[in-house]
């Protein structure tokens, strides 16, 4: 699915999805300091109820050229709802550890996470990420080799109970 900026948030009342987009978001903060991946557009929930939300994240990690110590880095992702971190939505995307004098390699991986969440109409869902460790490069990347996205499918009305 491709689209213009105006169509990046597909909505028909029963599902919503961010469209494919190319970007690189470098994670430069402290270890485990969460931040919103601003390049991925906000997903707006079109109606209240229980939604099955899935996100997919491609991470990249590279440790600096050979050093004298064993070091590591990585990428963890999560969801934000209306600007607040949503506990329990975390996913380890990539973790990279190399022994002394063995650094300088880059690795990439894609992770996905799915869960059921209660939303009000108009709630804003964003992707968040943090780096593990402070050595080397940690980033979220989206292109034709691996996309970053959020998808939500409406499951039940708010307060729906079994009969």
Please provide a written account of the structure.
With 163 residues, the chain is mostly beta strands. The termini are far apart. The strands form 2 sheets. Strands 1, 2, 3, 6, 10, 12 and 13 form a 7-stranded antiparallel beta sheet that branches. Strands 4, 5, 7, 8, 9 and 11 form a 6-stranded antiparallel beta sheet that branches. 0% of the residues lie in helices and 53% in strands. The N terminus is likely disordered.
Short description:
This protein has strands at 9-11, 15-18, 23-26, 35-36, 43-44, 49-62, 71-81, 84-85, 91-98, 106-119, 124-132, 137-142, 149-156. It has 163 residues and is mostly beta strands. The strands form two sheets. Strands 1, 2, 3, 6, 10, 12 and 13 form a seven-stranded antiparallel beta sheet that branches. Strands 4, 5, 7, 8, 9 and 11 form a six-stranded antiparallel beta sheet that branches.
Q: Which class best fits the helix and strand makeup?
A: mainly beta
- The low-confidence runs, each spanning 5 or more residues with pLDDT under 50, are 1-11
H/E series, N to C?
A: EEEEEEEEEEEEE
Number of helices: 0
Span of the ends, CA to CA:
38 Å
Overall pLDDT score? 87
- Helix % is under 10%
Q: What sort of overall outline do the alpha carbons produce when their principal axes are compared? A: elongated
- Strand % is over 45%
Q: Could you describe the largest sheet, including whether it forms a barrel?
A: 7 strands, antiparallel
The radius of gyration computed from the alpha-carbon positions, rounded to a whole number of angstroms, is 17 Å
| Total DSSP E strands | 13
């Amino acid at each position: 699915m491709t689209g213009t900026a105006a169509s990046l948030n597909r909505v028909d009342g029963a599902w919503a999805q961010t469209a494919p987009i190319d970007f690189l978001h470098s994670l430069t903060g402290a270890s485990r300091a969460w931040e919103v991946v601003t390049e991925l557009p906000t997903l707006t929930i079109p109606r209240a109820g229980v939604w099955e939300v899935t996100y997919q994240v491609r991470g990249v990690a590279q440790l600096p050229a050979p050093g004298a110590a064993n070091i590591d880095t990585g990428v963890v992702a999560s969801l934000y709802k209306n600007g607040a971190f949503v506990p329990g939505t975390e996913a380890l995307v990539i973790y990279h550890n190399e022994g002394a004098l063995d650094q300088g390699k880059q690795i990439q991986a894609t992770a996905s996470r799915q869960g059921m969440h209660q939303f009000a109409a108009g709630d804003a869902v964003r992707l968040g990420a943090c780096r593990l460790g402070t050595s080397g490069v940690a980033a979220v990347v989206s292109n034709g080799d691996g996309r970053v996205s959020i998808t939500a499918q409406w499951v039940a009305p708010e307060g729906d109970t079994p009969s």
